[in-house]
Amino acid sequence: MEIERFRWWHIAEVLPIEEELFGAERWSSAMFWNELAQLNFYIVATESDELLGYAGLAATGDEAWVQNIAVRRTAQRRGVGRALLEALLAEAERRGKKQTLLEVAVDNAPAQRLYATYDFEPVGIRRGYYQPSNTDALVMMRNA
After folding, report:
1. Please, what is the angle between helix 29-37 and helix 11-22, to 10°?
2. Which residue out of 103, 121, 129, 130 is catalytically annotated?
3. pLDDT tens across 109-127, in order?
4. Is 115 among the catalytic positions?
5. Residue 19 to residues 16, 27, 38, 104, 123: CA-CA distances in angstroms?
6. pTM beyond cutoff 0.90
7. Which of these is catalytic: 18, 42, 54, 115?
8. Do 139 and 101 meet the contact criterion of CB atoms below 8 Å apart?
9. Domain total for the chain?
């Protein structure tokens, strides 16, 4: 598996993964274009020219925010999400960020367990954060 920078040509490849994983709450191509235009740090994981997953990080002030981590269903439970998260945390450290935060659906226990292994702890709830399902988001944070 290789981790490389997310480029504009990856947008078409990530949209089906967004649909598969997030359905009505998926990101649009415009949202990804916006993330790239803001120069946020985005990466993809590939293997044999297949895009397995992607992740993004926004940084401002002393904080970094994990924007997303997504791994296609057929590649889950193979360490792809872990590798993407480690790359994001390394970038946050490289940028000298004191805290890294993220939001995760309250019903996504596997992701919450992954984040907990990297010292993320719950710090709050965003009620009705994910739309249109109105699902709450758990806010998690780790200190550098």
Report:
1. 120
2. 103
3. 999 999 999 999 999 999 9
4. yes
5. 5, 8, 23, 17, 29
6. yes
7. 115
8. yes
9. 1
